[in-house]
Amino acid sequence: MIDNYLLEELVTFASEKTLAKTAEKLSVTQPTVTRGMQKLEDELGIQLFDRQPNRIVLTDTGKLAAEKATEVLAVNRNFVQQLQNYAARQSVIKIASIAPGPLILLRVRSASFSTQISIDKKFITHDQITTSLLNNENSIIISDQKIQTDQIESRYLGTENLYVNLDKFMYLANSQQVSFKDLAGLSFVVLNDIGLWKEIIQKYIPNAKFLYQEEWAALTEITKYSSFPYFSTNITTVNPQQRTSNDDRVRLPITDEVATMTFYANYLKKQRKSLTPLLNEISQNWPNLS
């Protein structure tokens, strides 16, 4: 069995023509390349190189060997890639989040991902992130924190932006956008399980009242027969189950800085390579502002 690195040296030499350039291209020393070429000839029992003073070139057999080596390396790379892709499809990547928005996106888009995922329905708190990752309880935790340690790193995924849906006859509905202060004193119908957003709306909307509902169906029913405003985001609108039918409310963006939440994928550095394909797919599926 010929080692791949020997074939790689042969193919590189055929392309670069000199030992010095081959060594530079492969980031090894020139003596390492020389030894590798000799070893390849010994293992094949064939002369591949014509060695002359101050010059070494491929023989005709060596040129053919380089062509065949190129084909073998391509087959080997394809072999490895296919196995890695298959293994990724067979494995299940566990994901948790500190907020509901990313989990909604993952549930809706999961069928299009090349990797199987398992979503933790319980929200993770900030102080649980590091322990959960180090204990391999979750492979990815989506949070609003960018973490960088010796073992953990983060990757930007996207933002979630809060909107308010107002009755079209309200004076505010004529605006292009609103602030939390503009919403002071109003009563809102709100899903109870909204993670960090719950604290934000309670803190930043003065004198507001919140009618919390456990189920989206109940919230939808209330909005049908009342003029209560409710909140949505650029993420919640991707879920068909969280779209209110026959709703003529006006959807306005909230301009306060805290009405935009930036999300990162936190994961172990040693798992970066295996998680990158899934993280790419999550980023590509992240909703734009609307």
Structure in words:
GO terms for molecular function: DNA-binding transcription factor activity; transcription cis-regulatory region binding. Pfam families: HTH_1. It comes from Limosilactobacillus reuteri (Lactobacillus reuteri). Keywords: DNA-binding, Transcription, Transcription regulation. Residues 2-59 form the HTH lysR-type domain. It is elongated, with a radius of gyration of 29 Å. Strand 3 (92-97), helix 5 (100-109) and strand 4 (116-119) form a beta-alpha-beta unit. The strands form 3 sheets. Strands 3, 4, 5, 6, 9, 10 and 11 form a 7-stranded mixed sheet that branches. By secondary structure, the chain is α/β, with parallel strands linked by helices. The chain has 3 domains: 4-89, Winged helix-like DNA-binding domain superfamily/Winged helix DNA-binding domain (Arc Repressor Mutant, subunit A), CATH 1.10.10; 91-158 and 261-285, D-Maltodextrin-Binding Protein, domain 2 (3-Layer(aba) Sandwich); 160-260, 3-Layer(aba) Sandwich (D-Maltodextrin-Binding Protein, domain 2). It is built from 9 helices and 11 strands.
